[in-house]
Structures are given as C-alpha cells and as structure tokens.
Design a protein that fits this description.
Length: 323
C-alpha cells in the first residue's frame, strides 16, 4: 500500500457566486462539478480542477453563507498551493494578479522551487509553485477553454502546509501510519523550520509540509479556511486495507464512505487535522458528459429523489462555461 499523492483539498467560501467567478475567470480553473455537501445538502460543493477533474488537481469549496472571518492559527491546514508548469509561468501570474488586483508577494525560492504567495478575495492562503525542477508525480492538463493560456495554466495541487503545536505527533501519523517519508526541510518566511514529507513518486503533487508553532493559539476557521486534505488511494480494495490499518492504530474514523465520484475514509490526526483517503475513481464524468461538466447541479443517486427540495434551497448559480 502506498498513497499516490494529494487527491483534493476542500475549503470554505461564504459566497459561491464570487468564488466561482474568481477560480474560473481569474485563476482559469475548470468547474468540473457543481454539487452539494452530501452531509448538509443546503450548501453548494464546488470542484475546480484541470480539464477532466483528474485526481490531484481538485480544489473544492463548501459554501457556508454566514461563515465569518478566519482567525489564522495552530491546528490548521495553513496553506494550499497550486502547481504551474515552470518558472516563466509565475512571471505571467504576477502580471495577471496585477491586472485583477489580487494580493500577492514577490516570487521567492523555497525548497529548491520558485513560489508565489497570494490570497483569494476571502483571504484564502494560497501559493503558486513552479514545476520547473519537479521529477515526481505528473501534473494534469489545464482546460483548453480556460481564459488562462494552457502553457501558464494550473496543472494541479501542490504541497499543503500544516501548522501544529506538536509536530512530532503529526509526523508519527504521516510516517508510521500513512507511509510518508521525510525528504528535507526549509525555513519559513518567519524563520521557523518546516519539515517536508513525500509519498508515492514524490515531488510537488505528493508533499505535506509540517510547521511547528508552539505558542500560537488555535485557528478559528471561517471563510478562507481549509476543511481537510485528501490523499490518493488506487482503488476501493486498497482503501479497505487502509481502513483496517487505521482501525488497528485505534484512530476513530468514518469507515468507508461512498461519495459516488470516489470512495473515502476520514480521520483526525492528534493535532486535529482532518485527513481523507480517497480513491482515484470512478471520477467526475460518471454522471455528466466530459464536455459539459459542472453546468448543472449534479447529485449522487442516493440524493436524486430529493432533487426538487435540494435545488429549492440553493441560490441559483449560472455555471454554463461554454457560453
């Protein structure tokens, strides 16, 4: 058993319409699924990814309209990064961020890669990371109909950073339970040491970065915070093996959950970070034509019978990306 890398990251937005506008029109990602939170069908669940919604390229958002401001802190997924093809693409993004008045910092080198930190309109903590030197997990293919040229487009998820009060407790889970390996470390912008762990083929699409901050208060999540990070599992048979391993380690967990587009298992590590293990398939084209992903509200079969009442509670959101 070996996790293949990052599967998706799920965050919180207070405004699905504005979120959709930013991630499709400014960031150039494709909305591959417009669905609902299966545990609370009153809220949208939006999935942005590459042209086909390949695993490892999905940044997703739950809409919580009354979500307050995030107070950053400990016990959190404190940074989500997105991959671009090369260093030249980062220069393109600087110009694009100026055009759209996106808050960003200057390009820096970190862990042997060029990185561009920025924020979305809800203060989501983000970074673009260059794949110029990447030799690990391959990226996806940006959507050809994106407003961003394919050469500069986002090709997938980069490393997620965890900020925790006791790094060793998280490290033990990553290495002893999930099979990650330590591949190095670097200094944060504030000077603290950040440990880097990789799984599978490694590289930008398969890393978790762990930052220890002992004196920091616990994060109060809201709009712009991250709910969980998910890791790629080959198939349902392997997911069942992971479930057995996590049970043997006596971690409370969700058991196998059918999300229709993939099968999942959720558990919290000792510092409170929510991890998900998710299968690569069957994928987002299961119930929609590949050319029309994300245009209508997609519901898994077990919610289809409740469609009228579910749609009645959702604010209409026009997502016809083909004009």
């Amino acid at each position: 058993m070996e996790l293949k890398g990052l599967h998706h990251v799920s965050a919180i937005t207070a405004n699905a319409k504005n979120n959709y506008g930013f991630y499709t029109q400014v960031m150039g990602m494709r909305l591959v699924k417009k669905s609902v939170n299966q545990d609370d069908t009153s809220m949208y669940h939006l999935f942005y990814a590459d042209e086909a919604g390949n695993p490892g390229t999905d940044l997703t958002f739950f809409e919580i309209p009354r979500a307050g401001h995030t107070y950053p802190g400990n016990n959190s997924i404190s940074l989500t990064s997105l991959r671009v093809k090369n260093d030249e693409a980062l220069v393109y993004w600087k110009d694009r961020f100026n055009k759209y008045q996106v808050v960003y910092e200057e390009i820096i080198e970190q862990f042997g890669r060029n990185v561009l930190y920025f924020r979305d309109p809800e203060d989501q903590r983000l970074a673009l990371v260059s794949d110029e030197t990447n030799q690990g997990v391959a990226g996806g293919t940006p959507w050809e109909q994106s407003p961003v040229p394919q050469e500069q487009g986002i090709i997938g998820l980069g490393p997620s950073k965890l900020t925790v009060p006791q790094a060793e407790r998280t490290v033990q889970v990553l290495t002893n339970i999930l099979g990650f390996r330590k591949v190095g470390s670097y200094a944060s912008k504030g000077g603290s040491a950040i440990q880097v762990f990789a799984t599978g083929k490694g590289g930008t699409g398969a890393e978790i970065h762990v930052e220890e901050q002992e004196g920091l208060s616990k994060e109060r999540p809201g709009r712009g915070s991250v709910h969980h990070v998910a890791f790629r599992v080959e198939d349902e048979a392997e997911l069942a093996q992971w479930a057995e391993k996590i049970n043997q380690a006596r971690f409370p967990n969700s058991g196998l959950v059918d999300r229709f587009y993939f099968k999942s298992l959720y558990f919290r590590e000792p510092n409170g970070i929510l991890f998900e293990l998710a299968t690569d398939g069957p994928g987002f084209a299961t119930d929609e034509d590949i050319d029309h992903l994300g245009e209508t509200v997609a519901l898994p079969p077990f919610l289809e019978g409740k469609r009228p009442e579910i749609e009645a509670r959702l604010e209409p959101l026009d997502t016809n990306q083909n004009g």
